[in-house]
Each structure stands twice: as structure tokens, then as C-alpha cells.
Amino acid sequence: MNPYQQSKPTVVPVNPFDPREDAAVLRKAMKGFGTDEKAIIQVLTRRSNEQRLRIAFEFKTLYGKDLISDLKSETSGKFEDLLVALMTPLPQFYAKELHDATSGIGTDEDVLIEVMCTMSNHEIQVIKQAYTAMYGNFLEDDLRGDTSGNFKRLMTSLCMGNRAEDFHVDQEKAREDARSLLQAGELRLGTDESVFNAVLCSRSFPQLAAIFQEYQFLTGHDIDDAIKAEFSGDLEKALRAIVKVVRNKPLFFAERLHKSMKGLGTNDRQLIRIMVTRCEVDLGDISDMFQSKYGETLASWIEGDCSGHYKKCLLGLLGLY
């Protein structure tokens, strides 16, 4: 997949948009006895995040009530979690996911990897601002306090949000970097993690793609295999995530969606996070990748794994309800 292709969102801003009308529909859906979940799903899954926030603003203006509080009191369980996620401004949503991943007992490194390894500089800066506004701490400090060793260094570097972002590829530099990676890894006893850290955190994604290609020419094998052989644990997972994101970001998320639903029990938090944060970006591509990799549709997995209004709302985000 060409990284510069237009990506396929499944949720786009509705036009014409009447936030007052939507607020009235939601009010009616929650007023009196019983709740009209269908109306709630149809409004909220067919509006962009920004539009949902405008609806909440109008809702409070018209009825003097908080839309999120009303939704919470009318719904429960996973459906409630999904609606609250849809109603949260994206930077705050990411900030909360990162905060919950680092606070409490044990760290959910998977969440840190998923967010920190896939975001652009601008997204990282916006998330950092939201994080400080919400928790009074710097994201970097919380990440550093909760991780250790080389993984901590990688997270700190990514947290700087200072990756090169030009689209120009310098083939000569790519060759040099590929050589440095080779010398820092396979050609020495032990591994010089700092070289991997420097290259994978500071080069642009198109430049990294060229570096990985040069690495293949130099060694005859894939950089991913080298990372598997040289690293272990969270650092290995994070470096391999960066490689995957460089090559095919939708596939990275497709695999995570698959993982969230396969086996016993569903990792609903991961499922909700990916569906909510990617629906306006590339959920269409993710869904295509899911089907081509697993031979079944993402929708059919959601059908089989989730139920009730929660299921319908997830399908709504795919444009299927």
C-alpha cells in the first residue's frame, strides 16, 4: 500500500450538519421511559468527533444538561464505554488511555506502544498538552516513571514528537543508516540499542522505509528478523511496531483488532480504542487489511464477538448499521 494514498475513513463529517436538531433527537431518545438506543447510535456513529462535541455543546445550551452524563445514566456496560469514548475529544481520549496504562499496578506497555509508535509529531504534542491539562503531570515524566531501561529511552524519544517529517528520501543516507543498524546489531557481540533508538525515532517514515530496504539489500534478510534476533520483551515489540507502521499502518491496526477478539474473552478496551480513534482516519483500510489477512471480514468478527447495542454501535462506526 502506498503510504501517500488517500486513506479511507468510515466516519466522515455529515453535511449539512444541524447540531441543534441532533441534540433534540438525542434528548427525545433519552426522555421518559425506556431509551431509544437506535436513535443514539444513528446520530453518534454518523458524526465526526468534532461534530459530536458541538452536539454536546448545543445539548447543554438547550436543556441545561450534560450529554455525557445523560448517556451514562441511560446506558451501561461496554455500550456506555463506547459512547463515552465517542463523546471524548480525541486528545483527551488518548491522554486518558496513556494515563490509565501507566497508573495503577503494572503498566500496559501494549497501549504505550500502540499510541506512541503510531502518532505524528503534531498528534503527540496535542496529546501531551491534553495530558498535562488533565493530570497536572508531564506525559514524559509519567512514561519515564513507569518504564525502564531501553524501553524507557525509546518512549522518551518518541515522546519528544521530533521525528523528521519531510517526504524527501535520501538514498545515500538510507544506506549509511542501514549500515549503522547492521553494525549496532548483527555484526557485534551484544547490541547497541542506542543506534536503533536514534534511527527509528528520528527518521521520517518514508526515509525509514528506504533504510529497511537498504538493510534487506545489505544482509539478504528483513530488518524485522534482525530485531527479533537482537531484542526481546517490550523493546522488541515497540521496535517491530515501528517497522510495521512504516510499512503498512492499517495492517498494524488490523492485527491488533484481530488480537483483541481472538481466543477467550475480548479486549474491549483495545477494540473500542482502535475503532473510535481510527474511524475518521483509515478504518476502511484497516478493514480491508483485516479481510485480506484473515479471510474474514472485520464486521463478521465483531458480530461473532460482541452483542447488543454495543455490537450495533461498533458496526455503525464501520458504516454498517
UniProtKB/TrEMBL annotation:
Pfam families (UniProt xref): Annexin (PF00191)
SUPFAM superfamilies cross-referenced by the UniProt entry: Annexin
Entry superkingdom: Eukaryota
InterPro entries: Annexin, Annexin_repeat, Annexin_repeat_CS, Annexin_sf
A GO term from the CC aspect: nucleus
UniProt key word Oxidoreductase: no
Protein name according to UniProt: Annexin
Gene name linked to the record: LOC113517630
